[in-house]
Amino acid sequence: MSEDMLDRYRQSIDNIDAALVYLLAERFKVTQAVGRHKAESGLPPADPGREKRQIERLRKLAEDADLDPEFSEKFLRFIIDEVIRHHERLRED
Fold first, then answer.
1. b (16+ CB within 10 A) / e for 55-68
2. Taking the C-alpha atoms of 9, 13, 15 and 17 in order, what is their torsion angle to the nearest 10 degrees?
3. What are its E.C. numbers (predicted)?
4. d(CA 52, CA 91)
5. Distance CA 82, CA 67 (A)
């Protein structure tokens, strides 16, 4: 593989990484709003039923995209756990 080709691949990876960061930032802005709403409404920080449905949905999307469903579940679980942590903190405040 030529150095030029490697540089182009790396640039594509860098662009994708940047897009992922911005998408995650947008997602967390929305989940923060959800957390505030839950705290104000007296709702629990976690919703195990929704989490289960979201994981099942993401696993299906991953399969359709030819991505390892186990990886996608771990990734979503990490995000969900972080969101719940934020929601718990909002409820305490």
1. beebbeebeeeeee
2. 180
3. 5.4.99.5
4. 22
5. 23
Instruction: For residue 32, give the amino acid letter.
Output: Q
C-alpha 76, offset from chain centre: 5
Predicted model pTM: 0.81
At position 4, the amino acid (one-letter code) is: D
Q: Which domains does the chain have, with CATH numbers?
A: 3-92 (1.20.59.10)
Q: Could you tell me which of 80, 83, 88, 81 has the C-alpha nearest to residue 43?
A: 88
Task: Write the pLDDT tens digit of every residue in 21-30.
Answer: 999 999 999 9
